[in-house]
Each structure stands twice: as structure tokens, then as C-alpha cells.
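In this section we walk through a basic example: taking a raw amino acid sequence and producing a predicted 3D structure, encoded as C-alpha cells. The instruction is simple. Fold the sequence below.
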Amino acid sequence: MKTIFRAVFYLRSNYVNKEGKTPVMLRIYLNNERLSIGSTGIAVQQSQWDSEKERLKGRTTEVLSTNLELDNIQSGLQTIFKKLEMTDAISLERIKSEYLGKKEEVETMMTLFDKHNKDIAKQVGISVSAATFQKYNVCKRHFTTFLQDKYKRSDIRLSELTYIIIHDFDIYLRTVVGQNPNTATKTMKTFKTITILGRKMGVIHHDPFLNHCFHLEPVNRGFLTHEEILKIANKNLGIQCLELVRDLFVFSCFTGLAYIDVANLTPENIVTLDDKQWIMTKRQKTSVATNVLLLDIPKNIIEKYSGKTYRNGKLFPMLTNQRTNSYLKEIADICGIKRT
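The resulting C-alpha cell sequence is shown next.
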């Protein structure tokens, strides 16, 4: 299918400068998509503007000079379009970036990682979770050690990112790093996100993942019986950190909240309506509002940890997810609960 590109000039009709002139604005189109570039830096008298021809009317020196400026802008955009059309990197954002002279110096895998991760860091707490940011940092760290171990290099040029490097990195994650197949697949998907950014920026002109297959193995997560949960809940553990982890685990069982959602709870999330206590919160992963009626067991756990101030005003003192999982395995052993 032929790619159609065009540039459109129009007046910002709701603004007039001190000289009584109106800015000429620029918008570009690529097939059915469009993107505003903004002001051309040219201002004209509205009465002289021909909206059909997108040029000034008349033959004065000023009119001819202004129209020539607009011709040069249009010609420059067509040159940029034709250059990018020869690659896989053509997009409205790329054309705009080239036109405004804002091409970023991203030529290696590490500089691309750095740009992506810095952009993600700016969004933490707004539209991105700290866990997501950490995921990209871990991916970069694994790729860095992979390059050092496999190729004795600290970086590679983006043009060197071929399928064989993708393949070798996948094998490295499964063997040297020791990731299970599903974890390795998720890490590779994270890595692909970085390369997608490079393609959108126009600094990667090929798809290194073209022949790579992503496959997730089905996982049987198993479950605890009601009797096993009560056995854990009533067990005298005698160690404070184990009791904390046990209490938070039981709290999750009786509320249906994930670890991160329990960690995010504050006293303000506990609301009383019609003499009943509710948890009113929002799931971190999906941003979906969740209302949970509190039963006696989770109520008692909240009461056990109330009256104290925890970091960032949270409802419970929290350990890291890794330590929590480690202690849960220890608790399962103490309670004689075996799972493969």
C-alpha cells in the first residue's frame, strides 16, 4: 500500500499578536493519522490568507517572501518523509522529531536502555509502579552481564542487535542466570519493549525479534484447603517476623487482596458503612476499584497492628516480597504443609 504524506498550514484564528498578525500553524498527515507540529514561526494578516491554497494572496515582496518560507518548510518535510520512507522507521513522531532537529543521540543498546528507563522513572507513582520500573532495571542488568560474559563487551551498537544475540540472551537467562522458562520468557518480553521504543524512534531499522517465539508453560499453582489455612492461622510460631508474614498471608486469604494491594493499604482505606467495616481501595495492577467486606479474622488482624505508626502511613508493617515468600516457605514447613 502506498504511503501518503502531506503537510497542512492553517491559521491560529483565536490569537493575534501585537502587530495584528496571526500565527501560521503546521499539521502533518501520514495516511489516516495526523499530528500537530505547532507554529511555523510565521505570522500573517488574516485578510491575506487563502485557506484553500494555504498561502498568502497577492504579489507583494512580503507576500512572495512569506510564501517562499512556507514552500521551503513543505519541501523540507517532503525530504524528511522520502528519507524515512526508505527505512522501517517512518512515523509522524519521527518526521516531527527530524523536522524540529531533535534527533536523539541513541546509537547503542545501553543508551537506548537508559533513555527508556529514565522515561519510566519519571512516571513512577503517576502511571507506572515501582515494580515495573524495577523490572526494566533488572532486564538491563541481565543484558549487561550477558554482553560481558558472552562477548567481553560492555555495549553494542543498535545495528549489531541481531536475532542470534536475542537467541543467545534467552539461553543465557535460562542457564547462567537460572531463570525458569516462564520467567525467562517474561524477561525477553521486557527486553522486546526496549527494542520497540528503538524502532519507534527510528534508531533500530529492523525487528531483531522477528523469528523469536514466546512461549509460557501452563502453571499449576495449587491451593490450600480451608483446614490448612486455619492451621496456619492458629499456629503458635513464636517469632515476630514469622507471625507478621503469617498474619498478612491470612489477611490476603480472607480479603482476596494481592500482596502489593495489602502493602498499599492505609487506615483511610478502612471505611464504616451501615455499621459494617469495608476495605475500599484500588488494585495496583488493574487500577480497578475494589470494595471488600471485612470478616472477623481480617478485622482481628487489623486490630492487632493498629495503634502504631508504620512507614508512609501504611496499615501494616511490610517486609519485601522476596523475604515474605521465603518466610512463607518456612511457615509451611513448620505447619507440615507440603506443596510441590
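Looking at the output, two observations stand out. Strands lie at 5-11, 22-30, 33-44, 49-50, 55-56, 270-273, 276-282, 289-293. The chain has a mean pLDDT of 90. In the next section we compare this with other chains.
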